[in-house]
């Protein structure tokens, strides 16, 4: 078999020629003599051995011959990836043999234990040197001569081993098919190929030598199998059905006439006849009535016969006049509106009847517990009905829905620094919340959705012009604007800006009372509190009434 222009036998003949050239003539003769070796011969051809690692073994016995320890080549292959790692003599492993004689192999001991899932690969690379110098006319030592032959034989074996991994051509191929590969320049950027006429090695330019359609280009640039399936219209779950064990169950069922496919709680099974009727809840004699025929007479339940003999028409219902005897009567559309009512109270609503408990008691001795027509129990009265009667509880809750937020500080503590040029959040905490309509955190408050009437005021001291506003920081909008007030800078004076109005707010909106001043005033710009009058000092006051 030819290996890219160099035959195996040509290599072997060349090596034999080298061996012949090292033989010398015997003294006093014109001929040379090859002596019979006095010791071991090369009688094995295996030069590669593999050992599966088990996570515990560190010693591995090999059988091929070495003339020098440096001829040993050790690789560890990761079985899952096929990646080889070269081991170094006297670093990753050591070699040993009896009397240091490796003519029949020896033992390799690894420095570390090899984990399972790896394979240790040992092979020989015989030295390609000849160190014996035989002088013509002098003695030719048998051991040195044999060693020279042995090294040539080992080299030939290693070449044979290497040639096993080289692609070759069949021996029967014509000479035209055995050409060499193109030069490195002609191969660059091209793909390996074989001439379509001679079969000889060549290289082709993929951009010109192969026709790639526009459709082929759409999947050649895909980087995953999933992307390729999508390009080909085979996306799992969209274009084709993903594999499913239950679909396998269905595919395995017999296509017997009259079979039904039903689930038994674990798999799909085929059923027919009585089994299907039971699965469907139609077991004869249990779920449905059985019938048989005897001549022209149907043998069945008398009540069913009576019903079967009735004439049907619109707005009719059946009722019994005796045992197993049925007849029909009228059932109007209005009457049917009563039949879906679940209790007496629902009937009264349908009939428009109001009970005593639903009526307004002048002396107040009866609690408002009814739900009849004309009665409303709404704490916020959102329906705004012109005809419904409200309960006392609703009226009280509506009137009492009051919220008060304040900025309360201990005596002689001022209201804080007022800084000109921006809106500042005024400090407030909850003082009163009748009806639980507000939550306050860090002077930011959230009101329940609805409409509110409010009155808000806050002082400023020695800041010139100042003004309040109620700000929706969630929506980024101003809800109400307060009065513009003036507190003369340099002359002790304190005035209050006030907000009065009605507004509607959606739920979960952050609200702040914000104040802006013309002139910065440290410490007491938002209210002077230097005098102790024996009570806490109140600065900001905000009152809300839920409408």
Name a few traits of the molecule:
flat; 12 helices; 547 residues; Jelly Rolls; four-stranded antiparallel beta sheet; alpha+beta; five-stranded antiparallel beta sheet
Folded structure, characterized:
- By secondary structure, the chain is of the alpha+beta class.
- Among the domains are: 8-163, no CATH class; 175-209, no CATH class; 401-546, Jelly Rolls (Sandwich).
- It is built from twelve helices and 30 strands.
- The strands form eleven sheets. Strands 22-20-30-25-28 form a five-stranded antiparallel beta sheet.
- α1 (8-22) packs antiparallel against α2 (142-163).
- The protein is flat and about 140 Å long.
- 14% of the residues are buried.
- Mean pLDDT is 81; it is low at 1-7, 17-40, 294-299 and 359-373.
Compact overview of the structure:
By secondary structure, the protein is of the alpha+beta class. It has 12 helices and 30 strands.
